Amino acid sequence: MTSDGELIARASHGDHEAFRALYRGNIDAVYRIAAILLPTTADAEDAAQETFVTAWRKLRGFQLEGASALPWLATICRLVCANRLRALRREREHVGATLDERTPSPIDVEQAVIDAELADRVAREVARLDDLDRELFVLCAARGYAYEAAATELGLTHGAVRNRLSRIRSRLRGTVQEGNAS
Known about the structure:
Elements: H1 4-12, H2 16-37, H3 41-58, H4 70-95, H5 109-128, H6 131-142, H7 147-154, H8 158-181
Helix pairs in contact: 1-2, 2-3, 2-4, 3-4, 4-5, 5-8, 6-8, 7-8
């Protein structure tokens, strides 16, 4: 399996296949972040795509810290979503649209900012994990691997995967609870 760092290095030199592999490996997680932050699936889909367009533009000279591109992509996604929320709010203010059953409910900008800050804190915490734990988290949480599949991919036992994920979840739960307390 090629690491995200290798894919980014190759993509920064124009390797479209490397960027496609980076996209395929991270699009589900990026979409989930956007879906949490935005009011409609269409907005989330657009934001996820825009995240990768932005990432493509920023590749030249980019150096990935750590093994996973997900924290970097999550940060881009959070910023794209914040911009989209501002645009939606401006549009709503200018149009003065009345709400009906076809219009999504008003966006709770304060909650969206809180959600974006939480996603950013979680992404920073994931970036602090050691390489094996970060890869395990990406495989299971972001890419949906079952324990056994992740164990096979990483050369671990099922029990080791279960125990490591339990520790990772506890650590991330602490980050979430810490954010909710402030």
